Amino acid sequence: MTVADNSANSGPAPASSSAPAPAPAPAPAPEEVGAMYDRFGDLLAMVLGRSALHVGMFVPHGERTAAASLLDLSDLAQDRQTAYLADILADGLPPDPRLLDIGCGTGGPALHLARRTGGRVTGITVSQEQLARCGERLNAAAGLEGRVDFTYGNVMRLDHADDTYDAAWSIDCFPHLSDRPAGLREARRVLRPGGRLLMTEFARRGTAVPPETEAFTRLWASPPPTPFAALLEEVEEAGFRIARIQNMTANIALCGELMHVLYQEQRDAIEQRFGKEAVAHTDPLMEPFRTFCRDHVDYYLLLLGKPEN
Ligand SMILES: C[S@@+](CC[C@H](N)C(=O)[O-])C[C@H]1O[C@@H](n2cnc3c(N)ncnc32)[C@H](O)[C@@H]1O
User: Fold this and answer.
1) To test the ligand 1 pocket, which listed residue (125, 157, 200) has its Cβ within 8 A of the most ligand atoms?
2) pLDDT at residue 10 above 50?
3) Which of 50, 107, 114, 223 is most buried, by CB atoms within 10 Å?
């Protein structure tokens, strides 16, 4: 969630404005995305949940939860989503698999993946602050000695050798990329033949008004989501076979609602911690962010395979 004002047209235009739409802000560079997480990662945890930094699974099937607050519910939803994705990736792995977590956040999902699969996990992120948090989580975790490491890395230019990993996952990281095809190509390159990439990605549905798109791209430090068809083309151009697609859109809609409520509820605490300037910038973005998530963002899981040869 970015609160830095890095654009000339800083305030969102009113939805009914007849003025020409401002040009969309350029896609953020990895360094800018990393700086956003360094500075505002904790703010994001206050409104998105503390277990991870991804969309939660708010709509479980046939299950009751014991959440006592909205933030607890968010934590539970994130844990459920992490576990669900780990189950998918774990299926069919070889013994002692080597795994890559692309955009590892604060490390919780990577630790879960290592436990779930018994494999060795490398997590990469563009945020130094997140790396420090990953280290803390790893130190506090028992039984994972030597099986998990975290390092700085940009998926659009990986320095890992070809054919290194049995599988990779990337949970809610690809929305940040200024060059998604490069990220896909790099992910494919470092997978061994037959290896799999499990990724989640946003897709644009319908036509949003510019203030909604702008609120989303600023708060999420991302380029505007593309239609889903564009993602599918890029996936195929990168040389992946599609093994599974799952629509998880109900979760992003609820996530947007929840972030909105939690932000309003904790606004004073956020102001105290991050300053008046930060909330003055973020306040007007929250409502269009919420309607954009509700009305214009689809959320997909894709399981992709690197062909054997
Ligand atoms: C929404 S967070 C998700 C974090 C984590 N996957 C989780 O589920 O909690 C997005 C993550 O992607 C990382 N990221 C963004 N751009 C990246 C890039 N170019 N290369 C690698 N990681 C990136 C961010 O630093 C952050 O860790």
Assistant:
1) 125
2) no
3) 107
